[in-house]
Amino acid sequence: MLGNADLAMFHAKSAGHGQHAFFDSAIRGELEMRLSLTAELELASARGEFELFYQPQIRLDTSQVVGAEALIRWRHPGRGLVSPGHFLDVLHTTSVADKTARWVIEEACRQGRRWQQMGHDIRIGVNLTAGQFEGGDLPATVAAILADTGLPARLLELEVTENILLSDDERAREIFCRLRDLGTRIALDDFGTGYASLSYLKKFPLNVLKIDQSFVRELKPDSSDAAIVESTIGLAKLLGLAVVAEGIEERAAIDWLKQMGCDEGQGYYFGKPMPVAEFERTFLTAKPNVAEHAAEQQTATAA
Questions:
Q1: Residue 209, domain member (yes or no)
Q2: Owning domain of residue 240
Q3: How many structural domains compose the chain?
Q4: Between residues 48 and 35, which one has the greater pLDDT?
Q5: pTM score of the predicted model
Q6: Backbone phi, then psi, for 75, in 5-degree steps?
Q7: Does 28 score more than 80 pLDDT?
Q8: What would the mean pLDDT of 76-87 be, rounded to a whole number?
Q9: What is the pLDDT of residue 52?
Q10: Residue 211 placed within a domain
Q11: Rounded CA gap, 251 and 228, in Å?
Q12: I need a surface site. Which of 219, 222, 260, 295 has the fewest CB within 10 A?
């Protein structure tokens, strides 16, 4: 009885402050699955089963590939490729969370340096986790990785979401200032979906706003989404920030975003997250036509 009550308490705490939960068999099943996944993820880390995929970021006015966002995937020996939505939340609570977060930065920087040595100055985007701000010395870690890999700091873009800033904004601001002093770029991801995004624009040393895909995916003229996107781009320009629109899936959205003054875009229209070899074959070797590749992507998706 006490064990079941403990499970219910754990479930209530996971749901947020002030929540409650009654025990039922589903709670035990959920916890058992979580514990099993935790053990699998720790084993996956030891076996080197994690892999980075890269999604292109395109300069809208020239169709040039200027960046690549590094996104973790799990190549499970039995289930094949596992998307982050199925394991990332649990991974951040495991004993290998810090180790994996550092590995992501290291591997992305190594890949960026390899591309630079091939003659491609491609900016590498890496998503930071809340755990990286809670312990250790993130700026010192990033500085050491840049020194070890040889990647210029200007080619590393560190992406954060508003929930990281909410945790301890003074500590976060200090960390960001030190990261900026290294020469890295700092991007605020999913902009427009939080409660106090505008206040962060003056508090933190940001370089980039990434407009959330929910405003871009079905962008149409004279819509509320268009008004929000256009006003966000205008505000960013006044503050000297670059703008990346996420979730681009149609050619028409690119034309409207260009008219609004948006700098860069990212989304399935240009390419889904893909392994290194496919990214290089598609975007780096043979000077690809991004528009042609995008048309192929849409055809494949429709099929």
A1: yes
A2: 50-302
A3: 1
A4: 48
A5: 0.86
A6: -95, 90
A7: no
A8: 92
A9: 98
A10: yes
A11: 19
A12: 222
